[in-house]
Design goal:
The protein is mostly helical. It has one domain. About 65% of the residues lie in helices and about 0% in strands. Helix 1 crosses helix 2 and helix 1 crosses helix 4.
Length: about 100
């Protein structure tokens, strides 16, 4: 996933969904370096973020490059699972298309 061109406010749900998938479901959509970038970008732009779930994010976690111990709404949980399923399907489709070539 390309994170450079995503608005700072959109990075909030990506951070929360990624954290939920990783820490609660033992699944990953982002690489470690992408997650680290995400944490740094959110922390560096903290005062400019205006998102309804910002209050769920802990700045100390961002500094540590972690999302451990956060609380997640049902909306975040459901969106996380949907996102993961979509990414898995993309990977399978890519593999099948490569095999056909």
């Amino acid at each position: 996933m390309e994170l450079n061109n995503i608005s700072i406010n959109r990075l909030v749900p990506i951070y929360l969904m990624s954290s939920y998938l990783y820490y609660e479901l033992d699944k990953s959509v982002l690489t470690d370096s992408q997650f680290d970038y995400l944490c740094k970008k959110i922390l560096d732009n903290w005062d400019n973020i205006n998102h309804m779930h910002k209050h769920l994010i802990d700045k100390d976690n961002l500094k540590a490059g972690s999302g451990y111990g956060l609380e997640y709404t049902n909306l975040i949980k459901g969106a996380s699972i949907n996102w993961y399923d979509t990414e898995i399907k993309k990977g399978i489709d890519k593999y099948v298309n490569e095999e056909k070539s």
